[in-house]
Amino acid sequence: MKCGSLPHYFSIEDIFATQERLPCKFVVPVHRLGFLDPSSESEDIAVGTTVELPYWLAKSLCCQRRNIVTVEMPKIYKEPYREILKADACVVDLHKFGLFFYEFGTYLSQLEHRDSVAIGSVLVQTFKERFRQVMDWAHNSGTDPLIIQRLDSLEKALFQEGYQTRAQLDAWLNKGASQITTAEMVINYKKRKLAVLDDL
């Protein structure tokens, strides 16, 4: 697996997303880190031990320079769940899949794993299918909490942006509905022009 595309240091969303845990299987023995496995009383981690580690640590341990663990994808990104999203992404309560579903999935798609390409594809397809629905909700349903609860963090941000943009547009249209009047400068110009013509 490759090391690269690090999360943005100052992004709260990136920090939360990279804290998500992955099942990792150790392929080499690791000394004095047995405390990482709460079910073990050994001081060391033996080959074959599976431990859930945060993404930022798992990625460091499974890159080409340090092939210490192999990573298993979380169940919400495995084939059965991908098939659900492919069937009809718009009916899925994406918040139940994960608060940072798109962000975490993007990081997983960068790993050299057999499912990485499929995860990347399903993320793009899911976003495309749900984007129009999210914008439709933002423009027509107000701030219904039941709708917002079905969205992950990225979709919530898009929903809020769409809702505010629609509110600003409505305010502008209502303000512009008043009668259009001639500017004072234009009236004065016409008066001056008439005065010049009268002098001729």
TrEMBL record:
<dbReference type="InterPro" id="IPR055221">
    <property type="entry name" value="PSF3_N"/>
</dbReference>
<comment type="function">
    <text>Required for correct functioning of the GINS complex, a complex that plays an essential role in the initiation of DNA replication, and progression of DNA replication forks. GINS complex is a core component of CDC45-MCM-GINS (CMG) helicase, the molecular machine that unwinds template DNA during replication, and around which the replisome is built.</text>
</comment>
<dbReference type="GO" id="GO:1902975">
    <property type="term" value="P:mitotic DNA replication initiation"/>
</dbReference>
<feature type="domain" description="DNA replication complex GINS protein PSF3 N-terminal">
    <location>
        <begin position="10"/>
        <end position="62"/>
    </location>
</feature>
<comment type="similarity">
    <text>Belongs to the GINS3/PSF3 family.</text>
</comment>
<protein>
    <recommendedName>
        <fullName>DNA replication complex GINS protein PSF3</fullName>
    </recommendedName>
</protein>
<comment type="subunit">
    <text>Component of the GINS complex.</text>
</comment>
<dbReference type="InterPro" id="IPR010492">
    <property type="entry name" value="GINS_Psf3"/>
</dbReference>
<dbReference type="Pfam" id="PF22466">
    <property type="entry name" value="PSF3_N"/>
</dbReference>
<feature type="domain" description="GINS subunit">
    <location>
        <begin position="79"/>
        <end position="173"/>
    </location>
</feature>
<dbReference type="InterPro" id="IPR021151">
    <property type="entry name" value="GINS_A"/>
</dbReference>
<dbReference type="Pfam" id="PF05916">
    <property type="entry name" value="Sld5"/>
</dbReference>
<comment type="function">
    <text>The GINS complex plays an essential role in the initiation of DNA replication.</text>
</comment>
<dbReference type="InterPro" id="IPR036224">
    <property type="entry name" value="GINS_bundle-like_dom_sf"/>
</dbReference>
<keyword id="KW-0539">Nucleus</keyword>
<dbReference type="GO" id="GO:0000811">
    <property type="term" value="C:GINS complex"/>
</dbReference>
<dbReference type="InterPro" id="IPR038437">
    <property type="entry name" value="GINS_Psf3_sf"/>
</dbReference>
<keyword id="KW-0235">DNA replication</keyword>
